[in-house]
Amino acid sequence: MKKIFDFIKRNQHVLVFILVFVAACLISTEMFARMGGAGGSRSGSGGDGIGQLIFMLFMMLPFPFNWIAVIALVVGVFIFRKLKKRGSILNKVPGNQVPTKKDEKGLASFKQMHPEFKEDVFVEKVKTAFTEIQNAWAEKNIKRVRRFISDGMYQRVNTQFKMMNILAQRNELEKLTIKSVTIDKIQSDGSFDVIHVGILASVKDKFVSDKYPNLNETHFEEFVEYWSFIRKTSATGKDMYSTYNCPNCGGDLSNSEMGDVCKCPYCGTFTNSGEFDWVLAEITQADDYVTTSHLHDMSNTLSNKIEEITDADDDFAVKLIEDKASNGYLQIQTARVMKDAKIMRRFVSDDFYAKFETTMKAEDHFVYNRIFLNDVTLIGALQKDGKNILALAIKSSFQRVKIVDGKVNLIDFAVTSKNEVMMMSKDIITEENKGSLYAHQCPSCGGTISDTTDINCPYCGNLLNSTKNEWIVTDLMGQQEYLNYFKANSNLFIANVNPKKLDAMYKVRDFAFNNVLVMIAADGVFDVEEVNFANKLAKKWGYAPSKLEGMIDMARNNQLVVRMPEEKKDREKIYKLMHKAAAID
């Protein structure tokens, strides 16, 4: 051993050179493997490159440096690949841990622009919103919190209520506790500010159906969710969380019949416009928040490029467009279940309505036992035929059931996610918008309208689904269909996110591991033995088990959903991996 140390000491400069050379070769090899991995006849593993390097080192360097360099190279490749394989987006899922650290830089910048902003006051509003919304959910009475939630947020809850009523369900919540609230990110969005907040909480959660007891579930959950609040930069600073009064006229809203329309019955003010206080616009589960962050970052960059749209609309904001898209999407899903196309007739184009009606009539009747919007993100904008057209990626999670002879049969064995893209259009040269079509108002005159197949306003006679002054849904397509659309119209896009990046954060192994966890937890039990199996599988597949605690926590709390990519070849690989996992068990 002493001889080895003496040798290293005498030749340290040469050895350092060799190690630097080997590191450079490793980096180069890895680059070549990535660039060539997608095509050609090679496997993309970089094996040929490493073989050439070994031969090169052996021939170039004198003994014993050639053997040292070769050994260092082989060991380095092994360690590098092992560490790289351990890296995964699943490592970043927080599970039952405290959410990511506060956005100190963003918060400081925001406070500089808004010196009146008090963090502790905002956090108290978040806690009030969280508690009141959970109680309203349990009571199936969202009207009590309607004054400070967006139209799209209202529709998310209202759609689930409609499904629960069909299935005679209620969701009982006990021991609700907020453990921490953290400001994760602050963003500027047109004339609006957005604050994303991480909330760590726990609750005993019971889904109960008196009519279909096989749907009953009970869980004690400790979970992390991310809540997104939006407010106009010029907001007046009124408080809508410690009072039930209208922020404009002071009228009592405690017994108001606010529903699809969030309008003060006394002065006609829309309390959730963002002009007065923070409005809840989105709730995102921890795994979705992590895995879609790259899309949102790209979307924010994209929004800055859409000058043709923002210049024509002073109130344009990505969050508002995403809110309209989520609203429209869920009403389309309600129409599917109810077999009643008039629910969504007023805000879809004639062509899409005809396409949807044909599809709806061909479908077997079903009900959503669960339906959630995981994420809605603006991913593209183009101009065509005198219209601005926006593409929005929509990720939803659902479980369908079928009622047969008074019994409920599962169509989907577990809650499953899917990706779709919604296209929304509006004229480049627009007219003034006097009301939101998605909140049952005529955009031309502001008159209140009901669910109807009549696409003319009963007051002013103008077309309700006109693109002259409102964003209208013109299509809803799968990822592959959108990819074909993108290729055919790529020269017309003002800005876009590469559609192939919608699933980019999940690799084949990640999909398979997620789905195995869902299957393990399907019986409502995730005990020590099953945790041990999950950790054993994680090691076998190259993960660092200690970094997957968040995923294990979510599986234990029944918060994960089945995920599959669009690509058929990747699906086949995932099935094979899941089959191997089952064989291990």
Would you mind describing this structure in some detail?
- The chain is an alpha+beta fold and 585 residues long.
- The protein folds into four domains: 85 residues, no CATH class; 199 residues, Nuclear Transport Factor 2, Chain: A (Roll), CATH 3.10.450; 201 residues, Nuclear Transport Factor 2, Chain: A (Roll), CATH 3.10.450; 77 residues, no CATH class.
- Helices cover 40% and strands 21% of the residues.
- The protein contains 17 helices and ten strands.
- The strands form two sheets. Strands 5, 6, 7, 8, 9 and 10 form a six-stranded antiparallel sheet that branches. A four-stranded antiparallel sheet has the order 1-2-3-4.
- Helix 14 packs across helix 17.
- It is globular and about 90 Å long.
- The two termini are 45 Å apart.
- About 6% of the residues have low confidence.
Key features of this structure:
585 residues, alpha+beta, Nuclear Transport Factor 2, Chain: A, six-stranded antiparallel sheet, four-stranded antiparallel sheet, 21% strand, globular
